[in-house]
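I am writing to request your help with a piece of structural work I have in hand. What I wish to show you is a protein chain and, alongside it, a tokenised description of its three-dimensional fold. Could you please explain, in whatever detail you think fit, how the structure tokens follow from the sequence? You will find the record immediately after this paragraph.
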Amino acid sequence: MTKVAIVILNWNGLNFLEEFLPKVIENSVVDHTEIFVVDNGSTDGSVEYLKTMMPAIRIIDFDKNHGFAPGYAKALRMIEAEYYLLLNSDVEVSAGWLKPLVALMDSDRAVAACMPKIKSYHQREFFEYAGASGGFIDLFGYPFCRGRILNSIEKDTGQYDKPAEIFWASGACMVIRASAYFEAGELDSDFFAHMEEIDLCWRFKRLGYKIVCCTDSTVYHVGGGTLPNNNPHKLYLNYRNNLFLLCKNQPGHELIFVLPVRILLDWMSAILYLLSSFAFFRSVIRAHLSFIRSLPVLIIKRKKVNRIAKKGSWPQIYKGSIVFDFFFRGIRFFNQLKF
């Protein structure tokens, strides 16, 4: 059986495949490793390019864009491997990036997922927004990272080089233990894109597994390759999926307090958006309406998670508000936080 399946989801990313896939091939020479490209119905010639220029790559060719979470979920059911390595098409891997990740997973079966340090492709001394040196969330479900608080991104000076247990690993580059993946119930296709990896990692945590950042490995992420940060649909997905995340996973005694506060915070941000962008305001409203319509399904999923989950607490959840700390206490660096 394949030990490591590097699985790259592609949708009209021919330019990224041309630029970054050769380095993935060159720098991923580890025994029993296979590289798969899962194409989500591209129309830019991606599949033709792969068949012509890189015939050794395994291709899973879908007829339409299923989205990030559904695309990966469908593909991983078709791949047998000990570890799945999900890798964005716009990631540059460095020499020797893969072996430390595999060695970490091999060393501790309690680790369900790990990630490397993720740095900016364009500003290589800085961390990258989508993961940095490991993901965390606050009490109200806002994600942040070692090296990134909201939109404040730190320069990497080695301050987070110590390997650490984290709360979530970035879907831009994460290694997943296949057995734990199916035990936890796979990626949730209803997320479509954004925060589905946090949802999966929270379920790992509830099963008693660990998530770790392996700082001996570094990759460089372009970011915003599919949806740019100023896209209203991306904003909609982030707001909606954050509510999905809380409703599915937050322990009941906390959810009763957290969910109303989070909804209020969302409405406050929607009013601020209204001052500058009606499209962003509408995205928040659409997100909340979609969340309300999805409640019956989310309640069923929550019950399913609770049936398999172990009781516990997670020190990687910051018990304060990262939004309050950022705007009112002036906190910009992860190491200023007191967990």
